[in-house]
Amino acid sequence: MAALAEEQTEVVIKPDPEGPQALPATQPGDCPGEGSGSSHNSSHNGGGGGSGGVAASSAGGDGGTPKPAVVPQAAAVAAAGTAAPGGAAGASAATAEGIASQDRQTLLAVLQFLRRSNLRESEEILRREARLLEEAAGAGALGEADGPGTEAAIALLSRVTAAAGPTGPGPGSGSGPGPGPGACPASAGSGAIGASTGNSGAASATAAPAKVGVVAVEDQPDVSAVLSAYNQQGDPAMYEEYYSGLKHFIECSLDCHRAELSQLFYPLFVHMYLELVYNQHENEAKSFFEKFHGDQECYYQDDLRVLSSLTKKEHMKGNETMLDFRTSKFVLRISRDSYQLLKRHLQEKQNNQIWNIVQEHLYIDIFDGMPRSKQQIDAMVGSLAGEAKREANKAKVFFGLLKEPEIEVPLDDEDEEGENEEGKPKKKKPKKDSMGSKSKKQDPNAPPQNRIPLPELKDSDKLDKIMNMKETTKRVRLGPDCLPSICFYTFLNAYQGLTAVDVTDDSSLIAGGFADSTVRVWSVTPKKLRSVKTATDLSLIDKESDDVLERIMDEKTASELKILYGHSGPVYGASFSPDRNYLLSSSEDGTVRLWSLQTFTCLVGYKGHNYPVWDTQFSPYGYYFVSGGHDRVARLWATDHYQPLRIFAGHLADVNCTRFHPNSNYVATGSADRTVRLWDVLNGNCVRIFTGHKGPIHSLAFSPNGRFLATGATDGRVLLWDIGHGLMVGELKGHTDTVCSLKFSRDGEILASGSMDNTVRLWDAIKAFEDLETDDFTTATGHINLPENSQDLLLGTYMTKSTPVVHLHFTRRNLVLAAGAYSPQ
């Protein structure tokens, strides 16, 4: 550390008429917030960190433990000036010869900052130490010629560097994420442009400002740290010229580079606009916005609408969109050739303002190879934080299915079935055996059977599995020539507003969540819903009798509908347990409730979310369930724990929908930040990030074999993903409104999608997933070529009169059940 502290940092600070002067840039890698980056990236951008690459917003840095900062000279003065004048006074004066004017300017910059921060006492101490009292009082301007006090100033600088270098700030300096003028600025990349504008760092400003003595202003801690990165000052009148210059350069570049470099327009536009607003150049900001917002891609219109309402510095504090954009680096995936072209242009033009933004706020993921085409880029971009880094989708995912337990089918049942079917058991038996043998083989891509603890099968579960296997033998094999029938359940007169639907696996019960905070459960078979008898009546029952399970039910309570009261807000999510004994519901009131379907009462209220919970779903094996909400996180629960087992944090906006993978080892979440993430239940890590949707995601479905994921969003598109390779493999266009529900048929041959455009569409899943291009090159660079074959894959479109499709379900025999509430025009 001592050796590091002696390195001198070369500083060029320009006179700054308006805002506080930023501190000089340290050597690359000295800041605690800078990671090593990837092998391609370390030279021009700090490394990303955290799960899913989201930088911690306050004092967390970019993932790893912060390295001790090398405090640059000016920073050392700030620390000593505000915190430990005693230590500085006690140090012996060092002789200084051949003083550079930069050091004097640095000292004056610190004094100016102290004066602006109303730290008069510290300022006086520093002046006294530097013997600058009389001289600098009237100086004012930063670029003044050397005077008699310079030697003392430099002596002070060297003494303070020695005294304050390795130690942290003293008791008076601001710990916590203070919004001071750039605590430990980002390195100036390859050094070609240098830190001539004295720019404060992005990752580092949010990482560990406590290393440098900066006084915290009263503000929300994360917001102030985040905003401090906009303290840099460029000439506001030049912003339009900078942006126009870059735009002209990109539009005039070769076609192969133009598409890739055009990705820079949106993030640069947003950061330049926010910089102008933060530095209170409101008219320039307005003019800049009006001139260039029309150039941005159509899928950013919603974000731009929010951005246009940020016209004053005060608006930026506490604004979610603003924080989203600032706390996560916008990721661009660009070929090495295109990047070199951009870098050369910015260096030739001395375009520091744009280069600083590229370094601080963007993460450029460089790959070797051909640049991508416009079509390939458009398929992948559109999320709130750009594309996913390629590293994010490299982890191994066990997408195979777990081995099914071996269950013997009782022979007497078999015989009864045989009689009913008029002597056809011979035909059925081989089918059943083939079904059984399929699940006995261990899938090579499956996780170890005991990777996560799963509940053991009860006798009732085994009976249910036997029933399921019998139903399977009567299942219709679907395909382009054999489409399923669709049975639509319309909720009439649903004035209470239908907000969620679920159907049990055996298709015997339907639950609806409503805006009047009730949950209603219907039986859709002739068998009515009955509650268990009261305790006094139960004590009279003969517990040894064969039909004890029938006797405990109270016939007097039998009805087709049960209403569950308990929530205090609209119910947005509902999910039956696989054994049909329980029902989960999630609500705007921030709770998830577990209801018993034996007594039709609430057993538990799970409180963990502080805001509305948009969705909840049981694991395919029961016991575990997942919930996601407005607080941007998904939580994994177990029914017998009142606190979550895992918290999946990483999304930049609401988590709208959640789904368990068929093997229960992974959870998929779809978010309003326009990304889908796959999380590992075992350790809580994010193992896949899928970008490509142009609107908030509202529906998810895993294929029955666990290999593929289908996602639907407000953009009306259904995207198909290969989970193992982490690639988009298909795009289904046809819906004209939000896709609310997706479901694969039981054998995975057909994908059904339901939408707010009042239609159910059936797609050929077999054809969509055959002959996939998933070679190593595609996986490495993301050069995906999506076939334009939506119309070939569309097998049928089924209109309702005026009913948005909220839920879809395939019965065990492959009949489609759809549900929605009739909405009169």
Automatic annotation (TrEMBL):
Compositional bias (Acidic residues): 409-420
Superkingdom of the organism of origin: Eukaryota
Coiled-coil parts of chain: none
Keywords assigned by UniProt, alphabetized: Nucleus, Repeat, Transcription, Transcription regulation, WD repeat
Residue span of region Disordered: 1-67, 164-188, 409-463
WD repeat segments: 491-532, 564-599, 606-637, 648-689, 690-723, 732-764
InterPro entries named among the record's database cross-references: LisH (IPR006594), TFIID_NTD2 (IPR007582), TFIID_NTD2_sf (IPR037264), WD40/YVTN_repeat-like_dom_sf (IPR015943), WD40_PAC1 (IPR020472), WD40_repeat_CS (IPR019775), WD40_repeat_dom_sf (IPR036322), WD40_rpt (IPR001680)
Ranges annotated as biased composition (Basic and acidic residues): 432-443
Subcellular location, record wording: Nucleus
Gene3D superfamilies: TFIID subunit TAF5, NTD2 domain, YVTN repeat-like/Quinoprotein amine dehydrogenase
Any GO CC annotation of this UniProt entry: transcription factor TFIID complex
Compositional bias ranges of the Low complexity kind: 54-67
GO biological process: mRNA transcription by RNA polymerase II; positive regulation of transcription initiation by RNA polymerase II; RNA polymerase II preinitiation complex assembly; transcription initiation at RNA polymerase II promoter
Domain TFIID subunit TAF5 NTD2: 234-362
Gene Ontology MF term list: identical protein binding; RNA polymerase II general transcription initiation factor activity
Main location as per UniProt: nucleus
Function: The TFIID basal transcription factor complex plays a major role in the initiation of RNA polymerase II (Pol II)-dependent transcription. TFIID recognizes and binds promoters with or without a TATA box via its subunit TBP, a TATA-box-binding protein, and promotes assembly of the pre-initiation complex (PIC). The TFIID complex consists of TBP and TBP-associated factors (TAFs), including TAF1, TAF2, TAF3, TAF4, TAF5, TAF6, TAF7, TAF8, TAF9, TAF10, TAF11, TAF12 and TAF13. The TFIID complex structure can be divided into 3 modules TFIID-A, TFIID-B, and TFIID-C.
Subunit structure: Homodimer. Component of the TFIID basal transcription factor complex, composed of TATA-box-binding protein TBP, and a number of TBP-associated factors (TAFs), including TAF1, TAF2, TAF3, TAF4, TAF5, TAF6, TAF7, TAF8, TAF9, TAF10, TAF11, TAF12 and TAF13. The TFIID complex structure can be divided into 3 modules TFIID-A, TFIID-B, and TFIID-C. TAF5 forms the TFIID-A module together with TAF3 and TBP, and in TFIID-B with TAF8. Component of the TFTC-HAT complex, at least composed of TAF5L, TAF6L, TADA3L, SUPT3H/SPT3, TAF2, TAF4, TAF5, GCN5L2/GCN5, TAF10 and TRRAP.
Family, per entry: Belongs to the WD repeat TAF5 family.
Protein name: Transcription initiation factor TFIID subunit 5
Phylogenetic classification of the source organism: Eukaryota, Metazoa, Chordata, Craniata, Vertebrata
Gene name linked to the record: TAF5
